[in-house]
Design brief:
Blueprint: H1 6-12, E1 19-24, H2 29-40, E2 44-50, H3 52-61, E3 71-73, H4 77-89, E4 95-98, H5 103-111, E5 124-130, E6 138-141, H6 151-167, E7 174-178, H7 189-202, E8 210-215, H8 217-221, H9 223-228, E9 241-243, H10 247-258, E10 264-270, E11 276-277, H11 285-296
Parallel strand pairs: 1-2, 1-4, 2-3, 4-11, 6-9, 7-8, 7-9
Antiparallel strand pairs: 5-6, 5-10, 10-11
Helix pairs in contact: 2-11, 4-5
């Protein structure tokens, strides 16, 4: 299965049972707009952690009914993050939604060795992009967690993204290990990493998938460009996952596709016991909704 757009994914979720979700620092209008929209659409059953009176006031202003049992009172950012993670540990949620608190504050609670919910050696961020000029969703990783990944870290980042796509229903996701060129060059260490990942993919070490690399962005997303350059690969012009060589490259790529290219973006952190949405505090309600929807789609 390939997912062409966010609305197409939403249509596939129709009729599925809602997933329990915990919202950290829920005292924010845009966050609650997204959460309540997802609740109305039958995607989630939320527990709201944060400043109780503010949450109740915002809910009232939005015309939403809210049971007091759905609200867990917490004060500052650290308290909100810790309380939300405690609820996940207690089995009260299948996803963790970031509200009005810094990403770092939430992730600090997630990775806490004593009380956190980290489950993977490397946690990584995936930006899911619905770009008008591309024929399906793109998964860009990692533009938000690992600054300068070495080969071993890239293995984990790639595995996280491939597992994520398979959770969403992809039978054999196609991953492009992005570089500036298509040949291995000693002057560009990332090309050797890309070639190693391709070889490991060919050996089946990542499960059902196709890994290509080194490969440039234009060849990974433009079949005509690949034909002109004589580059033959099932991934050429049809990549699902774009594996960036660094956090800077991943961040720039994701924001370019989102901003300049007019795409819509969802964001999720993988490698914890549950998926974690990590939109910017300034993100629109629509962006936060898509992130919630993506997590709700994970089996």
């Amino acid at each position: 299965m390939v997912i062409p757009s966010f609305p197409a994914l939403k249509a596939q979720l129709h009729g599925l049972p809602p997933r329990r979700a915990v919202v950290a620092a829920a005292h924010d209008e845009h966050t609650l707009q997204a959460v309540f929209a997802a609740r109305r659409d039958g995607l989630i059953l939320p527990t709201l952690v944060g400043r109780r009176e503010e949450i109740l006031s915002i809910a009232q202003d939005l015309g939403e009914d809210l049971d007091l049992a759905q609200v867990a009172d917490a004060g500052d950012d650290a308290q909100c993050a810790a309380r939300a993670v405690d609820l996940i540990r207690a089995g009260e949620g299948a996803m963790l939604i970031k509200g009005m608190l810094p990403t770092g504050a939430l992730l600090k609670a997630v990775v806490n060795k004593e009380t956190g919910i980290r489950s993977s050696q490397v946690m990584s961020h995936v930006a899911i992009l619905d770009v008008p000029s591309y024929h399906k969703l793109l998964y860009v990783t990692d533009g938000g967690m690992v600054v300068a990944p070495d080969l071993e870290q890239k293995r984990h980042i790639l595995k996280n993204a491939l597992d994520f796509c398979r959770f969403l229903g992809y039978d054999r996701p196609k991953a492009a290990a992005l570089c500036a060129v298509e040949t291995v060059s000693p002057a560009m260490p990332e090309t050797a990493d890309a070639a190693a990942l391709k070889a490991e993919g060919d050996r089946g070490e990542f499960g059902p998938c196709i890994v290509e690399g080194p490969i440039a962005l234009d060849l990974a997303t433009d079949r005509e460009a690949a034909q002109v350059k004589g580059y033959r690969s099932p991934v050429a012009g049809d990549a699902d996952i774009l594996l960036a060589p660094s956090i800077a490259a991943g961040n720039l790529l994701g924001k370019s596709l989102y901003g300049l290219a007019g795409g819509e973006m969802a964001g999720v952190v993988l490698g914890a016991k549950v998926p974690v949405t990590v939109n910017s505090r300034g993100a629109t309600a629509a962006e936060k909704y898509w992130s919630i929807m993506i997590c709700a789609a994970m089996d």
